[in-house]
Amino acid sequence: MQRKIVGHGHDVKIALFYFCLAAIFGVVLRLFPVVETQANYKFIVHTHSHIALLGWVYIALASLLYRCFIRTGTTDPTYLHIFWFTQLTLVGMLFTFPFQGYALFSIIFSTLFLFASYWFLAFFLKNQSPALKKTPGFEDLPFFVQRLN
Length: 149
Fold this sequence. Notes:
It contains 6 helices and no strands. The chain is mainly α. The chain crosses the membrane at residues 12-32, 44-66, 78-97, 103-125.
């Protein structure tokens, strides 16, 4: 049974929420020279960059790819599992990077995010229309994915 938990633009709204968080962390970084704080600058930089690229950009692009090439009306349960697992990894990074930088738990959440992104790639490739799979760019995709390793 397919459900609409992330439907109606909720995935895009969550991506925009990460954009706002990244902007807030960016403002905090700009305030470091003028406001004395106990926070570690490098840890905030790590948080800012991970939330900006993985939270905002990745979630926005993955949502766009799903909406343009896969979704057929209702939200696929597998996409929901991938989406919420990815959110878990991002929240984990959001609460570990500011306090410990690159250390055990932030690395665990970053690694889990990589697994989530590979899971999304496999889901994306598997759920393409037969017509799209026959296009030259799609036929060359395994060659390029193989070169990433």
